[in-house]
Amino acid sequence: MDTLTAKSEATFATIIDAALDMAAAEGIGKLSLGELAKRTGISKSGVFSRVGSLETLQAAVLDEYDRRFAQEVFLPALQQPRGLPRLIALVNTWSQRACNEGLNNACLYSAGAFEFDDQHGPLRDRLQQGVLAWRAALRKTILQAMELGHLRPDTDAGQLVYEIYSLIVGLMHDTRFLRDEQARRHMQRAFSRLISTYKSFNDLE
């Protein structure tokens, strides 16, 4: 990699880092190339030359958010055996991240879902795509648990995805908005009770 390319990539990373912080604090819909130029000390034309349009910037921010989320939540869970152990690990790492304080752990998708739920356009579509990808990964893990006999064969995977995702959203609400220090404990107890109703008789301890 030549020096010019390395410098360009470093500048791009600086812009995306600043944009992520801004989106976490104010909402992804509040991103602007001009404000990013002020925050990074890069000219507006310099920001534009590296990220292009505002829509391209928003997509790049969500792509980077997805990458970090996968690294912190999904990849650690994949180290666990397939089936119920992996599902439990996935929910644990996800809930742990949701409870960590700081802008870096703010959920752009949850905030964006409320901000753009009644709107139309590429950003809403991209937000929806991200949420559906998360839920698809959750569904895949549930189906593996069913195939391995850890969950009942009559388990409605779509229903269980909905219930788990609702617990996560509720956890983020109570943690970040209500500042409830007991939120994760409540969520974990609810998840344990929920999953016990789906466990296969052959897998009951």
TrEMBL record:
Keywords on record: DNA-binding, Transcription, Transcription regulation
Q: Name one GO molecular function term.
A: DNA binding
Superkingdom classification of source: Bacteria
Per the record, DNA-binding region residues lie at 32-51
Residue ranges of the HTH tetR-type domain? 9-69
Spell out the PANTHER family in the cross-references: HTH-TYPE TRANSCRIPTIONAL REPRESSOR NEMR, TRANSCRIPTIONAL REGULATORY PROTEIN
Specify the protein name: AcrR family transcriptional regulator
Taxon lineage: Bacteria, Pseudomonadati, Pseudomonadota, Betaproteobacteria, Burkholderiales
